[in-house]
Design goal:
binds zinc ion; eight-stranded parallel sheet; alpha/beta; ten-stranded mixed sheet; 15 helices; 18 strands
């Protein structure tokens, strides 16, 4: 007997012999249909043809037509075939057979339409250092990426790194990304990062962090104004939270005495906080218990990794309403500890996902989803093999897709704006091709996204209703100029850091 999850609920399999939901019809199997169609606005008329060349007129309504729509909103449900209408940068309707006068039409008949992926932790300044450290441990990373290269970054390098990372994210279907930015050797470095995020068009959370130095003593960096400069940033760039790039503080790892003033600086300007905890042996210090003794933990904080936290610390995160970010791939590569997906679930915390470092991790979310999916299942199988009579449930592909979207939105403080295809939310939407050899013929929409697809399936990307990628190509990006920018920044950085670039 085959057991499949239904589209709109978590109901478990009625057979009682397993943790799986009930079997569905073939139609539901492909792409389950909503019980109730939702339309926030009624539009009548005839849709116009799309413009040649893949461009869309700014400000014009967009009708995404005839796709298999995974809204991931349980109240709205999913549709084997439906339309998504985008007006004024927002999703205004999701239902079959929408007619929209004057709307630009995007044919989605061979696509899965889904919310864009949401990354909750990536050090985007390292976008020009991709794959520099494929065999490195965490100690190697700190020595090479942070102390050797990071200490020598000039503002233009920060700009190039952030810009490459942002465009790469959009290209692979990540529409919102938290830039865990700890490269603020001077305020000019900060300005460069903020400018790059804005220029890229990605939806971003700029998490302002410390400087890099050759000895790792960021608090002694002469040009750095961390954390007090966050007051300027709030005023100069982030006076509103209703914009495409919003503000967080990236708190450093260290002693409570070093961390507490940064938490205060964030809260003084109403910025949320993100911090690495529970990383390897260093993560066993009971840091969250110490911070809790100072009443510093709150629902405004995202805890990254959490691999080696103790049970008391986990309970503190749960009790104070914090969110978590698991970077499963890097955690297995660099010795952070076992990615704590099952632990989070046991505690009633739904995790978000993150890439962390492109210096040794692929920049797409398909790899992230598959990593934690296979690791969690392996953990359950191992317990079964060891004789555990009451092992945890297996994670499902739908849960993993939720971690990659709506749970990311929650950790980035944006769950009211993005993360599901809900009418009224901003239109951060991806169209994934099903007519590619890695997924055709398609048999299960959520399964196709989580188990089979890759960046090559990302055909079209919208952010706040703006088309950023179309027909498999980024829109409005001059690749020759981009290549020059990347090569020049990389070569300058290697020269400044006195590192020979062997390339092989
Ligand atoms: Zn990190």
């Amino acid at each position: 007997m085959m057991h499949l999850r239904s589209s709109v609920g978590d109901s478990l399999c009625s057979c009682g012999a397993c943790n799986s939901p009930p079997a569905l019809s073939r139609r539901q199997f492909l792409c389950t249909t909503a019980a109730t169609a939702v339309a926030a606005s009624t539009v009548v008329g005839t849709a116009s043809a799309q413009q040649p060349g893949g461009a869309t007129a700014p400000g014009r309504a967009i009708l995404i037509k005839g796709g298999c729509v995974l809204t991931l909103d349980r109240a709205v449900g999913d549709f084997e075939q439906a339309d998504v209408l985008v007006e004024g940068g927002k999703i205004s309707a999701v239902r079959p057979n929408i007619s929209a006068p004057n709307a630009e039409v995007i044919d989605a008949s061979r696509m899965i339409v889904a919310p864009g992926f949401v990354d909750t932790h990536r050090h985007m300044w390292q976008g020009i250092l991709r794959n520099v450290l494929p065999d490195g441990s965490l100690d190697d990373y700190i020595a090479t990426v942070q102390k050797t290269f990071g200490a020598k970054y000039v503002p233009d390098d920060v700009y190039a790194g952030d810009y490459f990372s942002a465009l790469g994210a959009i290209d692979s279907g990540v529409t919102c990304i938290l830039d865990w930015s700890h490269i603020h050797n001077t305020p000019e470095h900060t300005d460069a990062a903020v400018k790059a995020l804005g220029d890229s068009g990605v939806r971003a959370v700029f998490a302002y962090g410390n400087a890099q130095t050759v000895d790792g003593r960021w608090w002694e960096a002469k040009g750095s104004k961390f954390p007090s400069d966050i007051a300027r940033l709030r005023k100069q760039y982030f006076s509103s939270d209703d914009q495409l790039v919003t503000l967080y503080l990236a708190a450093p790892s260290g002693s409570p005495e070093q961390i507490l003033p940064t938490f205060k600086a964030a809260r003084d300007v109403g910025a949320r906080i993100t911090i690495h905890v529970g990383v390897g042996e260093r993560g066993r210090s009971g840091l969250l218990e110490k911070l809790n003794a100072e009443k510093a933990l709150g629902s405004d904080t995202t805890y990254i990794h959490c691999c080696t936290l103790n049970d008391t610390e986990w309970k503190l995160i749960k009790d104070t309403g914090g969110t978590i970010s698991i970077a499963g791939y890097v955690e297995t590569l660099m010795g952070h500890g076992n990615p704590p997906t099952q632990k989070a679930i046991d505690m009633g915390i739904r995790p978000s996902l993150s890439v962390d470092v492109e210096t040794s991790v692929p920049n797409d979310f398909f790899a992230q989803m598959r990593t934690i999916f296979s690791l969690q299942k392996n953990e359950v199988w191992a317990r079964r093999l060891a004789g555990d009579k009451n092992p945890p449930k297996f994670l499902t592909v739908r849960e993993v897709l939720e971690f990659a979207t709506i749970e990311g939105a929650r950790a980035n403080g944006l769950e009211r704006k993005i993360g599901t295809l809900t009418p009224g939310k901003d239109a951060d939407i991806i169209l994934l091709r099903t007519d590619r050899l890695n997924v055709m013929p398609m048999n299960n929409a959520v399964g196709a996204v989580v188990t089979s697809m890759g960046p090559q399936n990302v055909d079209t990307v919208l952010i706040a209703g703006k088309v950023m990628k179309r027909n498999g190509q980024l829109v409005g990006v001059d690749f020759e100029r981009l290549t020059r920018l990347g090569n020049e920044a990389r070569d300058r950085l290697y020269a400044n850091a006195n590192v020979k670039n062997a390339r092989i």
